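Tokens help. One example:
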Amino acid sequence: MTAASHITRRAGLAGAAAVLALAGCASAATGEEAMSEDRDLAAHAHDWDWLEGAWNVRHRRLKGRLVGSTEWEAFDGWCEMRKTMGGFGNVDDNVVEIPSGAYRAMGVRAFNRETRQWSIWWLDERYPATIEPPVRGGFVDGVGEFTGDDTLNGQPIKVRFRWTDTRTTSPRWEQAFSADGGQTWEVNWEMQFRRA
């Protein structure tokens, strides 16, 4: 082997070693990113931990929706939530004691691992063949916001659910409707939760 070929071979080995070292760094970085993504995904299984269990609920609801009403009615209720699907789903059973007569309803929530969003459906025992269109969203700093499309009296509307005070012993929920594509919102239902 000539001195020149020996130098060339050593340079080639050094280059290959550098490429392998870079590949190793990239592989380690990819592994760390994957672990970070796994941790982030696993954390979503705890998004609703604060709501698990039984609650007494104080409701406040507008008598008319998107008609300029300012008259509210207040009534009591009850809710019990339990997690499903390893935390990536949950259901709550509700008793809603509206003045015209109490009824039961169920909230169903499921997490989409690809979009990293929760979907929420509402099923009312008075209309058992119909489940309302879902709202979708998630939590930022303990505030949950979920939006979707629906209709009211045959007209398309936007619906928004918002959860606040989720890091306290008395979380709050509100529902709002928009008839202008989300430019303005009318809050029409509020719930104050207290541990049963």
Q: What stands out?
A: Confidence is low (pLDDT under 50) at residues 3-23. The two ends are 86 Å apart (CA to CA).
